[in-house]
Please model this.
Amino acid sequence: MTDIPRKIIPLADLRYASRIPAVPDRLTTPNGLLGDTRGRPLRDLRISVTDRCNFRCNYCMPSEIFDKDYAFLPQSSLLSFEEITRLASIFVAHGVEKIRLTGGEPLLRKNIEVLIGMLARLQTPQGKPLDITLTTNGSLLARKAQSLKDAGLQRVTVSLDALDDAIFRRMNDVDFPVADVLRGIEVAQRVGLAPLKVNMVVKRGTNDGQILPLARHFRHSGAVLRFIEFMDVGATNGWRMDEVMPSAQVVERLHAQFPLSAINPNYSGETAERWRYLDGGGEIGVISSVTQAFCGACNRARLSTEGKLFLCLFATQGHDLRALLRGNFADDQIAAAIAPIWQARTDRYSELRAALPPEASAAPGEKRIEMSYIGG
Ligand code: SF4
Model:
């Protein structure tokens, strides 16, 4: 494995690039049919509940940047559970049906079960319960799975980049043993957090040799293993196109060992392309933001830990909803402020990236917000 020298980029100013949305004079009642400039509905809200993590995966939170001197957000700037739930209910009125809790590592947020309980009480305008899920690195899952389930969490996605303990420890960069994450997955399945998904970020030359071992491990397990192309998220992970393993090659490698056939998406806007093993071994997925952009049906909005709304994973600018919350604006005013933001949305970074020469993955001067800040 070759150590590629990384360009160190100062970070402090990035988190604060946002505007305070205007509150229109004429308030309109949300009707759950908000569409952006491409007709994409607002259906999926990803909420980052902490910018901290106990791992230092180098494609997300490289340790040379997120070191002991890194200034994580002070508690006072984080949205409280009441504020998160208030904003979530406003987004639900605008059409959101699915909430994914992310981070950093969301299980590090104290009493997260309380927040899950508050969100689980929300319903869509049609009276349906929300689809509440969470993405975790699995380090605390064995201990927390039961209480998460009891609080109302329905399912969980666990990030797992290798089965080989040495490679896994190297990739999380904090020497964390893979066995503890595997045990967390077992406990989560046992308590009924399902369907359980396992996400592997594939970096060519780093862990692509783990594609088959992970597939072998999760076949016939009921868990859905997904392979994610290494993405140029944020401004610190030293992304290079030659470290991307296109999903087509991942599928080819798996198919040669375990024949696969393509299956239809579960719903419009699903990020993963689905495949099933012909021998009944279960399902896998590939998430191909680099080689097969899926912006056309992207119905995802993201809320940062301190209440900024981002319309794309590769955004460079946010909208400060916390200022409205703490500015004593009423829910209908905040709802009216959010509507034009989504309606004006044009984001399609992955499509645009495809048109750029391989190494120029961002327009000059533009710096993208870190994934560890707004969630994957
Ligand atoms: S690049 Fe942005 S617009 Fe495209 S799918 Fe990802 S989050 Fe959505």
